[in-house]
Amino acid sequence: MEKPFAELFGQINVKKRLNFYLKAFEKTSLCPFLLLVGAKGLGKTEFARQFGGNLKNSDGRNRPFLELNCSTIKNLEGFFDQIHIPLIMDSEITVLFDEAHELPKDVTNAFLTIFNTERGHTRDFHWRDGQYPFDFKQQTFLFATTEPDKLFPPLKDRLTTVDFEDYEPFELAQILESQVEDISFEDEALLEIAKTSRGNARDCVKVAKELTIWCAANDTNIFQLKDFNKFCDDLGINPLGVSHIEKKVLSILRKDGQASLQELCAKTGLSRTAIQRDVELYLMKKSLIKIDGKRHITKEGSDYIDHHVKKKVK
Amino acid sequence: MAQVTYNKDGTPRKQGSGRKKGSLSLMEVRLSELMERLELNDTVIIGRKWYENLFKKVVDIAPQKTDTPSAADAVEEKIAYKLTTFK
């Protein structure tokens, strides 16, 4: 039998923990209420799906996997009527509450009772005139969110958090290569393309699709470092996956040496929040700028502009 | 000194021109008393306010709205889910 998560790259610590819970499940038929936490595109849903696919029912068959987008759950009545009664109650099933921070208040409050950490694997939840049974040997509940700070803290306390990490460039390169068929890569070229996906596995898959089209359009099945610039140029992709507005901020700082947030707002036309949240975070992550009251470009940032922008003008 | 009130055209109203207390143009009468003297198709003069109070309001009452959700609301409240079964 294939090892769980064999097809997925990276996330070593996540794999270790989930493998441990799978082994424990084989013995106990129980699994803690897991909360998968990580930025978008790190593979939370895919890992949850594969985890669910490895859970067995009491009759040995694979347990079905139900994936719910919490932003579409409007109230407790809808949850019980449309989901719990027809799909969960008296069934052996794994349920993933994706975007769990979007759960409405009344459902969150009900979950405080249902997922309480008291002993025993069964709960009867009473609401209005009804009684809604839960059996955690039959039903496994998983949660996933990109914004754990928005999850109601008492609910978060009842869940076991599994943190996802950013992918390393070589892991992204592995993901990219696995998504592209019949194309050979020069190692450095593969790494450079992988870096444009900003540490995000989902973006990596998207880049792989574009790369396949680009190679077909250019009638080639070998991708070399010399092709990288043309590929980026054709598709409007900047090295390191820097967006055009991030590149503009870098250029301003390269020209002026330093700037206040207010000055950057004036020169880019963006709001303070947009610059702080959407622009500066990634530039700081890549050590292209530093902030000490004012915004400064680093040596890496200057090199980036000199190498990738000025060179083009020549 | 009595307070001066004014007509619509701004001239002072003549003292004692109003209706005196108890001087009503309308009176109460039993319908049966009228019916003794009148035929079914006879015309009678009645107070406009009385008529409107008695009949028009009934006609004007808006029909009660029922809480029927629109099709768009019904679609919006559907919970999105994906069920996967593994072989």
Describe the structure.
The complex is a heterodimer of chains A (314) and B (87). Chain A has 314 residues and is an alpha/beta fold. Chain A is built from 13 helices and 12 strands. Chain A folds into 3 domains: 152 residues, Rossmann fold, CATH 3.40.50; 73 residues, Helicase, Ruva Protein, domain 3; 62 residues, Winged helix-like DNA-binding domain superfamily/Winged helix DNA-binding domain (Arc Repressor Mutant, subunit A), CATH 1.10.10. In chain A, 49% of the residues lie in helices and 17% in strands. In chain A, the strands form 4 sheets. Chain A has a 5-stranded parallel β-sheet with strand order 2-3-6-1-7. Chain A has a 3-stranded antiparallel β-sheet with strand order 10-12-11. Chain A has a two-stranded antiparallel sheet with strand order 4-5. Chain A starts with 11 loop residues before the first helix and ends with a helix. The mean pLDDT of chain A is 92. The mean pLDDT of chain B is 77. Chain B has a domain of 35 residues. By secondary structure, chain B is mostly helical. Chain B is elongated, with a radius of gyration of 31 Å. Chains A and B meet through helix 2, strand 2 and helix 3 of A and strand 1 of B. Strand 2 of chain A pairs antiparallel with strand 1 of chain B.
Essential attributes:
heterodimer; A: 314 residues; alpha/beta; Rossmann fold; Helicase, Ruva Protein, domain 3; Arc Repressor Mutant, subunit A; 3 domains; five-stranded parallel β-sheet; three-stranded antiparallel β-sheet; 12 strands; 49% helix; 17% strand; globular; B: 87 residues; mainly alpha; elongated
Could you report the average pLDDT of chain B, rounded to the nearest whole number?
77
Please give the number of β-strands of chain A. 12
Largest sheet of chain B: none
Total of DSSP H or I helical runs spanning 4+ residues of chain B:
3
**Secondary-structure element series of chain A:** HEHEHEHEEEHEHEHHEHHEHHEEH
CATH-defined superfamily of the largest domain in chain A? P-loop containing nucleotide triphosphate hydrolases
CATH topology of the largest domain in chain A: Rossmann fold
- Which chains share the greatest interface? A-B, 19 and 12 residues
Which structural class best describes the helix and strand composition of chain A?
alpha/beta
Gap between N and C termini of chain A: 57 Å
Q: What is the correct CATH architecture of the largest domain in chain A?
A: 3-Layer(aba) Sandwich
